[in-house]
Amino acid sequence: MTTPTDPPLLDIRNLSVRLGEGAASPALIENINLRIRAGETVGLVGESGSGKTTLGMSLMRLLPPLLDRGLSGQIHYDGDDIVQMDRAELTRLRGGEISMILQDPMASLNPIFTIGNQLKEGLRLHATASGSLEDRAIAALESVRIPSPEARLQNHPHQMSGGMRQRVVGAISLTRAPRLLVADEPTTSLDVTIQYQFLELLKDLQKRAGMAMLFITHDFGVVAKMCDRVAVMYAGQIVEEGPVREIFRRPRHWYTRALLDSVPTLDQALDRLPTIPGSPPSVANRPQGCRFHPRCANAQAKCMQMPPMAELAPAHDVRCWFPLQEQRGAA
Amino acid sequence: MFKIVAARTVEALIALLLMSIVIFFLSRLTGDPVALLLGDGATEADKIKLTRDLGLDQPIVIQYLTFLGKALTGDFGRSVAAGNQPALQLIMARLPASLSLAGVALAFTMVVGILFGVMAAVRHNSAVDIAARLIALVGQSVPSFWLGIVLMYVFAVQLGWLPTSGYGRWEHYVLPAATLGLFTLAAITRLVRSSMLEALGSEYIKLARVKGLSESVVIWKHALANSLIPVVTFMGTFFAVMITGAVIVETVFSWPGIGRLAYESILARDFPVVQAVVLVITSLFIIANLLVDILYVVIDPRMRSRG
Ligand SMILES: Nc1ncnc2c1ncn2[C@@H]1O[C@H](COP(=O)(O)OP(=O)(O)O)[C@@H](O)[C@H]1O
Ligand code: SF4
Ligand SMILES: [Mg+2]
Asked: Which of A32, A295, B116, B262 has a beta carbon 3.0–4.6 Å from B277's, enabling a disulfide?
């Protein structure tokens, strides 16, 4: 088991992604600092548009060319800086070291080629494995519990159900036993039962392989189930980061609490759920100072300046001038 | 899959039948064949005799069925101008020249167009991309008779690198094939470029990269395979463009194909030959479209499992 003093597997420092080069271009994500240790699962939550996918894609340098040129900061992975890697190094990194389950699994499989073809492409690159390609492809489908895998290898994506495609994409992303998996809302398009099964499966695979995970979601229920720590993103910044249990019990940022309050609990009827008033700003219209102030119930004059990220408790950081004090539910 | 192919074949047969009806009646509308065949100095008795010989005194439906029956056995009538030769024989003598020219032009445009389209999409907004966009624009707006004359003037007359006309050696193919192919080259370049751009932004390309595949596999396998589907769907149109273009290009370069035969027989008012050429060209066109439809079903797995 790893301890908090081990050097992190992934150490993101001051990472920004701008719409083009130059510090004046609008930033999709800005000054991100985040560490992930081996075997650890870190959740990344926030409303849609806050920059979660952008952060995930930048770790594999899979942003569109314009955004990739606007990448600055460092992503230390096992001693190397991903931001400085050339194409050959990135090809080595992708799949084998870091892999990703993409946000839209239904569209992630190539419609032209069979499942077997697409699985074996990755398997072929996994030099250390033994056994025939066919056997390994079957084993990969079995590991995500696809029934009659031999026959399924001959299928094209459109011949499979959504849940099954999701699992095939999972199998493909995991074929080369990566040390870090970025899972970008891997279950949002699935219905609840299949969603639950897939999360169980991921957890199981992760435990067996000792893989670290950056788990992107906007669902706190999923965070509670999957993650050790969680980072909350708003308008391109991380506004709070800490251990999952602490954040649930005692959120410090006003946005985090508003998000948690909009999660249904068992004794709450769905139609009485509070939602956060207003909507998140677009990349070009982000406000001065604390990005959340136009929607914050506690906004004050000082909030017109950008609050720094500060450590309020061990390993619990918050970006707010007036952090919440009381425990949640204590009122 | 078999069902789709069978359905397409039946459709093609129906199209052929309809086409034969249209051509038959159109040819009856364009003038009295007896007057056409005999010329000005004929007597009334000659006319009556020929009318009976040609079966023109029969009801029109019978005439059509006779025409169809003969056409099916390869009898398209005889040439009026070229020493009473069977029309089909004239066409068959010219067909290899036309097919080889169209084949060379199509192969050249496919290879160059696909290469160009892929490079333009991969290096979006670079010099290659700008060149490709220019070709796409020019190639689809320049009339082929003008292009043919310009090419001939520059490369044959002024520079003397290539022959102005003739048939037989590879040098003879260069200018006519370039003229015939430019429009299709432009269309394929544009089609491949835009579908490659779309494919390169797709989720399955991201997954291919996530797997750690090399950039060449990502582009030439995953992106290109999807980008070729629209090209295949347009192949029938490209073929049609080449066939109709052949009349002009073959005339400009004195190419001994059926395009020039059509032109010559219209000038000579050689009516049975014109009709036969039109029949053969439209049949080729329908058959080409049938082949494209089948090819489409073969390459796109989503179509394949529907039948
Ligand atoms: N290629 C792009 N060009 C410009 N803006 C983009 C691009 N991709 C995403 N964005 C913008 O960046 C912001 C963050 O997007 P994203 O990372 O997808 O957020 P999330 O995954 O949290 O929903 C959004 O406002 C989105 O509109
Ligand atoms: S800094 Fe001010 S506006 Fe921002 S969350 Fe804290 S209290 Fe609200
Ligand atoms: Mg997203």
From this structure: B262
